[in-house]
């Protein structure tokens, strides 16, 4: 629920923050594409992809009973890559119906993520460590494709080609 609320906040307010700061969606697409690609590249190389947490956050998480906000909801589930894609997807939605669909899909993704986390031990036993590595690399390829498209779309818009 916390990750969903964080993503909704950025979905609703992200573009407003950009306007206030003078940042265009195109420049955010370029920067976001580069960032998301670095994550995808690590996935493709089989590296352990983890969002970095500060030492203070790790110490705090070790000493508290509820880690649902930090570090689980943010930055692990609703981290920079997820927030980037959420803002860009919401920016592409032109009608209230489309924006409603984006929010509904965000909710369904968070619900699916909850189910996966709830059943992670069973799923790991079913697909095994090798299956996790294969899925990680295949998903890395998809994420890399999304990142390249984000970058190209932003670049073409800036260059006036789109």
Tell me what you see in this structure.
There is one protein chain. By secondary structure, the chain is mostly helical. 82% of the residues lie in helices and 0% in strands. The protein is built from seven helices and no strands. It has helices spanning 2-21, 25-44, 55-62, 68-77, 80-92, 96-118, 120-158. Helix 1 crosses helix 5 (80-92). The longest helix has 39 residues, at 120-158. It is globular and about 50 Å long.
Alpha carbon gap, first and last residue: 37 Å
Strand content: under 5%
Total of DSSP H or I helical runs spanning 4+ residues = 7
Helix coverage percent = over 70%
For this entry, what is the oligomeric state of its chains? single chain
Mean pLDDT: 87
Outline type? globular
**Radius of gyration based on Cα positions:** 17 Å
What structural keywords apply?
mainly alpha
Draw up the topology in text.
Layout: H1 2-21, H2 25-44, H3 55-62, H4 68-77, H5 80-92, H6 96-118, H7 120-158
Helix pairs in contact: 1-4, 1-5, 1-6, 2-5, 2-7
Give me a quick take on this structure:
With 162 residues, the protein is mostly helical. The chain is built from seven helices and no strands. Helix 2 (25-44) packs across helix 5.
